[in-house]
Write a structure and sequence with these properties.
Oligomer: homodimer
Shape of chain A: elongated
Largest sheet of chain A: 3 strands, antiparallel
Structural class of chain A: alpha+beta
CATH topology of chain A: Arc Repressor Mutant, subunit A
Helix content of chain A: 40-55%
CATH architecture of chain A: Orthogonal Bundle
Strand content of chain A: 15-25%
Number of helices of chain A: 4
Number of domains of chain A: 1
Chain lengths: ~110, ~110
DNA sequence: ATCTATACCTCGTATTTAGAGGTATTATGC
DNA sequence: GCATAATACCTCTAAATACGAGGTATAGAT
């Protein structure tokens, strides 16, 4: 149901975070803006979404964290581990599978077979 | 649910159902299989997903229903109304916005701007 | 001195997929 | 004739998770 529009967002923040952290080290607050920027404002996620995912992925061993004091503030930098990259691969495969199927159907041919 | 991987499925069943019912009249049990077939086995949704959505969309005026007895069994056929088609349009726009953004990022250019 | 931006965090709510379970009729296999 | 599968409808509970609000604290700008 979805009041006015559904989300199509389940799993997307996790996918984007893993993707970005495969390129380079980043901290939570930075990721919030990086996602906004990298998607051309199309996708925006709040800190309430980012931090829990970061913590969960770290606990799963998909991310490694290191604290780094910068100008009196403390930043926690995250990077994707080998496990994280592997997981990203799984997520991308899954993403392709779903989006290809939906896009096909939406595009036109609703007529069974391939 | 997705104990290891997330789903990327939020809103997808609703989108697919509206899409299929824009083409032709169908009943719940039929939709369950139609989705499986039309997506080439890529996406499967159970009756526990389809029926609640059907009822919700009907209540919202997006679908019209008519009961039709067939061989002693009763089928409830649904079709997309004008409101339903309008809603489908909104969903597709949203779908494009999200998937374009994600696919872009996944594909490669993580480098800010357009 | 005040307000905004940076930087971390948690909690509660709402949404919604998935699966199990329930009823009832028809078709199929033995 | 009898059991099992397929058809066809339905509901409920559990689990996951995005979102927003709220909370702390420091640095920079007005």
């Amino acid at each position: 149901m979805a009041r006015t529009n559904p989300d199509f967002m389940t799993g997307v923040p996790e996918l984007l975070i893993l993707r970005l952290l495969t390129e380079r080290e980043m901290y939570g607050y930075e990721l919030v803006q990086a996602i906004e920027t990298a998607t051309g404002e199309a996708i925006k996620v709040g800190e309430g979404v980012v931090y829990p995912i970061l913590h969960a992925l770290e606990k799963q061993g998909c991310l490694s964290a290191r604290r780094k004091p910068v100008n009196g503030r403390t930043r926690v930098y995250y990077t994707a581990t080998a496990a994280g990259k592997k997981r990203l691969g799984v997520l991308i495969t899954e993403w392709q599978r779903i989006t290809d199927a939906v896009s096909n159907l939406v595009a036109g041919s609703v007529h069974g077979h391939a």
